[in-house]
Amino acid sequence: MSRCLIMQQPLLVLSLLKEPVWTVGRVCCCSEGRLNDKSIVLLPPLEISNGRCLELDVSKIPEFAVFPGQCGIITSSQQSAPGGDLEKKVLFGRCYFLHLLCKDARKQMLASRVDKLRNYADRKSLELTVACGPFTASDGLFYKTLDALIEVLTEEPPDILMLIGPFVDLKHPVIQSCSVEKSFEEIYENLLTPRFKKALSLSENLLLLIVPSLRDVHHDRIFPQPPFQGPFMHERLRYLSNPCTFSVNEIVIGVTATDVLFHLSKEEVFKQSEGVRTDRLGRLANHLIEQRSFYPLYPPAMEVNLETSRIDKLEMACTPDILILPSDMKFFAKIVNDSLAVNPGRLTKALSAGTYCQISVAGIDRSHGVKSAGVLRC
């Protein structure tokens, strides 16, 4: 973070005196329960803090949005900051006032060579359909909703069909009641594999992408999550990890099946200026871009078994052109920090059909950045 935003070395926390200085750290909660505006602290790296944390007084800040695990740079001073009188905070016998949190460290988008872009300039638009599980209603493992989606796509098959788990849902009533006679692996192989084959038969050019979910009871429930290992293989079938980043026609697409938007919404502390309306869903999606992470929340939600030794796999190598974020929150498709952020919703909601997403990327020069997306009801 300090390398990205400022070309100086962060000052030792113990040496913060009267002159304005800055330091870097991670937002934490200093009390029991959820983070609130009275319990926000910044934990700097051990080499500059000796294990001490800085309390962050946000009472005089007109607007902010913080959550546990958020990395940022703060400025601290014993003097009043420009624009008003700011109170001081006393922590561990030392006087600090933290009046600025800089949290934007987003990476650049992938730069493409002009000659490569010209290869796609005269082609038709790239059509991408995204659907997120559950793929069957709560009254049984019949997968009629997935069948309906495949039937809808028969008339105009997309170039890419992305199916995001859960496929054998841990939260499905039939699974939770343990009333199935087959193993979870057999359910996946016998009920999902034939439907994957049918999807591939829609077009000889269709590429099928499969992304697992932490709710897939037949798969490894660790995050980051490895891709499925078969049993069905095909030259136009790709099993991807959760999260993952890939490129199609010079368009970078980032995906995570974990409901990071919902988890952030429960932990975020937010304040806005009076009379100003903000886009909550866009703000939550923007946290991922600014923090360059598919899951910037720490500690994670209880349902997320975070493998800390592989936490580097959550980092975004670059800012995606398209960011797909399935969530139980309201579906949307909007431009966030020059990226197209999409929540396709769930294909099935209890006993009723849900939503899926169709994205069209025009085959023109990247500098125009034209992308369109729509969320449709199944």
UniProtKB/TrEMBL annotation:
GO molecular function, one term: DNA binding
Record bears the keyword Lyase: no
Signal peptide stretch: 1-23
Any one Gene Ontology cellular component term annotated for this protein: alpha DNA polymerase:primase complex
Gene Ontology biological-process annotations: DNA replication initiation
Record-annotated DNA polymerase alpha/delta/epsilon subunit B domain positions: 129-334
Alphabetical list of InterPro entries matching this protein: DNA_pol_a/d/e_bsu, DNA_pol_alpha_bsu, OB_DPOA2
Superkingdom classification of source: Eukaryota
Gene3D superfamilies in UniProt: 3.60.21.60
Entries under Pfam families matching the protein: DNA_pol_E_B, OB_DPOA2
Record key words, sorted: DNA replication, Nucleus, Signal
Domain DNA polymerase alpha subunit B OB: 18-74
Chief localization: nucleus
Compartment(s): Nucleus
Family membership: Belongs to the DNA polymerase alpha subunit B family.
Protein name: DNA polymerase alpha subunit B
The species this protein was found in: Zophobas morio
